Amino acid sequence: MTVAPGIQRATRLLAFGLLSASFLGCASTTLPPGEKLDPKTGVTLTFSSTPMVLYRDNPSQAAFARNLVSLGPLQVNRGGRFEYFLWLGIWNTNQTASVADRRNGFDSIVLFINGEPLPLELNGWTPDAIGASEPVYSQPVTSALDAYYRVTADQIRLIANSDDIQLRTTGFTPRNFESWDDQTAARESFRLFLSSVVY
């Protein structure tokens, strides 16, 4: 299906506007972690106020096309039993990409934290993978995908204290993502998350 250049350009501008607005919000004082009682499952979900953002340029799809990934920590409290997850929001500025194309390679990923690999396996694509009935992180565009990976609090701490984070997908055509600009506010948000959930 061919999309008119004017529509593609408007979509890209809207996506960049949303991304820029989220970054401007990050420049302000870091907000405390959020907490939510899931209305259907009864689990308590704690999450950071500012996800990290990674990106890769994708000029093969369109001029100025980018793939983006947001990362945020989650604690799931099931009546005093705690589990930790890393949420990924997967989206791109090319709205015509299929769900299969956007999911490709995210079943297994490798985070590189200051150059050290941290392999992660997908726990699921929907909130029920973590025992919730609805997501807690907001997506910048409606076509974005959620993905959840089981981690430990120590692994979240490594991410929060890192100087450099990169992500590599797996599969036949691995893709590399790097940190978008300065992630100071997001790292501070991760640290505030940790101080609120790790006793």
Explain this structure to me?
- It is a single chain.
- 25% of the residues lie in helices and 35% in strands.
- It has one domain (32-197): Immunoglobulin-like (Sandwich).
- The chain has helices spanning 5-27, 99-103, 153-160, 184-197, and strands at 34-37, 44-47, 52-57, 66-78, 81-92, 108-113, 116-124, 145-151, 165-169, 176-179.
- Strands 3-4-5-8-7-6-9-10 form an eight-stranded antiparallel beta barrel.
Keywords:
199 residues; alpha+beta; Immunoglobulin-like; 8-stranded antiparallel beta barrel; disordered N terminus
Remind me, CATH topology? Immunoglobulin-like
Instruction: List the helices and strands in order.
Output: HEEEEEHEEEHEEH
* Uncertain residue ranges: 1-28
Could you give a short account of the major beta sheet? 8 strands, antiparallel, barrel
Q: What would you call the shape?
A: globular
Overall domain count: 1
Tell me, rounded to a whole number, the average pLDDT: 83
CATH C-level: Mainly Beta
Radius of gyration: 17 Å
Total strand count, please? 10
Biggest sheet: strands side by side, in what order?
3-4-5-8-7-6-9-10
First-to-last CA distance: 53 Å
- Give the strand content: 35-45%
Q: Indicate the CATH architecture.
A: Sandwich
